[in-house]
Amino acid sequence: MNEEVSRILQMLEAGKINAGEAERLIRALGDAGSGPRAEEAASSEESVRPVCLNPFRDLQELFRIAGEMQARAVRRQSRWAHWRHYRWTRQEAEARGKRAETMDTAERVRFVLTDRVVVDRQDFDGNTPLSDLIHASQSGWERPRRIAWDNLRYGLEDEFQIEIPADDVDKWDTVQAIVGYVGGRVGGAHTSAAKPEESAKTKSGKGKTGAPSSQPA
Prior knowledge:
This protein is mainly alpha-helical. The chain folds into 3 domains: about 1-35, no CATH class; about 60-100; about 105-195, ACP-like (Non-ribosomal Peptide Synthetase Peptidyl Carrier Protein, Chain A), CATH 1.10.1200. About 75% of the residues lie in helices and about 0% in strands.
């Protein structure tokens, strides 16, 4: 296009065309340059023009992806924790039922002391003082001792499915004291459950063997 304009200007200098004709020719060249070819050239220039990146937009997208990944990880962790809790609870219930069928009260109390309280000594009997078991290792901290007593209380409650007041724990001095306490609580529950039947039988027996009936023989 520049060459054609130069040629028109040369023709004007040579006197072959006047100024008006030169202006019309140059204007015609400009109109021709704004046609379809010019639009294609402009679009091709835009296509090859480098795209400016938006760092803020890219950072926002990265934060969004990182947030979604963290949320998925938290959900998986929570799901696994609940699964472990339910599985452990079922396994403990099954094991507790088997111990109730195969072990007596003293053996189950020993299990709580060794596996739940984790006492320092394993060679103990019914007459062994609890202070020798729980406070065998000398420690200047009161919290470990309190944790041991709490584990004893919670372990017995879980093993025998009973509620034990905190004041009752302070009254135990030997292993046999625990066995007697738990045996009384568990045995008392069975006895109270059997009382209605016994009272019904007693009443029926009194009806038969009690005062003589007023009806003639």
